[in-house]
Amino acid sequence: MEYDVIVVGAGLAGLVAASEIAAAGKKVLLLDQEPEASLGGQAWWSFGGLFLVDSPEQRRLGIKDSKELAWQDWLGAAGFDREDDEDYWGKKWAEAYVDWAAGEKRDWLYNLGIRFFPVVGWAERGGYLAEGHGNSVPRFHIVWGTGPGLVKPFEERMRKGIAEGFVDYRPRHRVSRFLSNNRTIAGVSGEILVPSNATRGEASSREAVGEFEFKAPAVLVTSGGIGGNHELIRNNWPSRLGAPPKRMLSGVPAHVDGRMLSIAEKAGGRIVNRDRMWHYTEGIKNWNPVWPNHGIRILPGPSSLWLDAKGRRFPAPNFPGFDTLGTLDAITKTGYDYSWFILTQAIIEKEFALSGSEQNPDLTGKSIRQVLARILPGPTAPVKAFMDKGEDFVIADNLGALVDGMNRLAGDNLINLKEIERQIVARDREMDNTFTKDLQITALRGARNYIGDKLIRVAKPHKLLDPKNGPLIAVRLNIVSRKTLGGLQTDLAGRVLDMGGKPVQGLYAAGEVAGFGGGGVHGYRSLEGTFLGGCLFSGRQAAKGVLVDLR
Q1: pLDDT digits (tens, 9 = 90+) for 408-457
Q2: Are the C-beta atoms of residues 126 and 134 closer than 8 Å to each other?
Q3: Which helix (H) or strand (E) holds 431?
Q4: Is the Cα torsion angle 275, 97, 282, 287 positive or negative in sign?
Q5: pTM to 2 decimals?
């Protein structure tokens, strides 16, 4: 079979690109090193959050958003400062993406059958000035069906392409080299891996049982980032974020290893913004792991008290859910690779959600009855399971017992009861008035002015040491690896560029391997909901670019 395009990587960006190209009547070979069980890649595991601007869901909740406000927020988060070089294309991609998120994105998804949970989430709240980092308004739209619900229509389109003879999907094919002809990429070669019964996310064998070589006039790389390769993360770790943590949890499976980045670089592609990455600070070790060192991120509301390893409260605006990388910087500079939440039963019931499709069976399973159960007393079943079985939780009826449990868990006796008590008592005194100088209390009261937060996301402000809100809970928070913000530099058609800024003929990239567009559409920070969206947009743009060049 002759192919028009080879797509390397069957994650979300690869599925989008392959289905778009096949729909245009071109023949696509889709290769992936993992077994078919992992089709859809990291998107399948996701919470399914998408960044949309001025959507019907926002307007129904009284949220006034605009493309201008979104672009202001994006620039404040990105902090582009390499605009003549590494950020040149990333910024162009960012502007095009915000236009798309404020324009046809929702209609395109809606026409594919994708629907959204009616309450829009408010991620990355910032806490700085108007032009600083953070979302000025809630923009985190949760797909009804979470990650699997987002992957499904693109998998269906891909399988339709298979049935019609336009797509040839081959799992267990690991690409190791690009073929070239007169400085033009002309195909790929690599190893056929032994068949594997590994379930989704489980480590699969790397034993090779054969070799392959396929040719095509265009090769599109959609192989993901480096989040499962902690050695590579540490090698690229930026000094601005302190020393790399000695211990990290993995937010992605081991096969997210970044190997195609170096292979594409050897073929002439340029990697930019290697030092930009996105790791979460609210990680807990999965009591029921799927992959090695499996970490789950807490999606916190704003009320928990955030303390460093020695029990010292982080300064503003390092509050839960406000500035991921700002807090990562604060944590690493303490010299420890973990921190703590202290909260109450009342807070955990309303404010704790867990990232991931498997941790949200109600939303993933599209069960309205189960979703409505979230308003009942008590934490959700997945959160309760972590409270009962997770190694990072301490629950106690009084502060002394809580501190004893924290010190036993950490094993280093860094927490002093009197210091913890002094800080919590001081915080609780600020609850006696509707006004306060404590900016976290100001922020959580302000959050409840948004009806979505008041209904399902932010607990009624209360004193942590008031027994009626107990028991007290402490959660040890670990750094959990996740996303690569830099990558292969591409133009707006998805063409991979070389060191001189010229396209590497025949080579394209999309998704995380391309920094979600241009080698770094996010700059230094994400506004959240933009990783999945970046895969959708860059996969679609690269497909368009390939189709134009094939004419």
Answers
A1: 999 989 999 999 999 999 999 999 999 999 999 999 999 999 999 999 99
A2: yes
A3: none
A4: negative
A5: 0.97
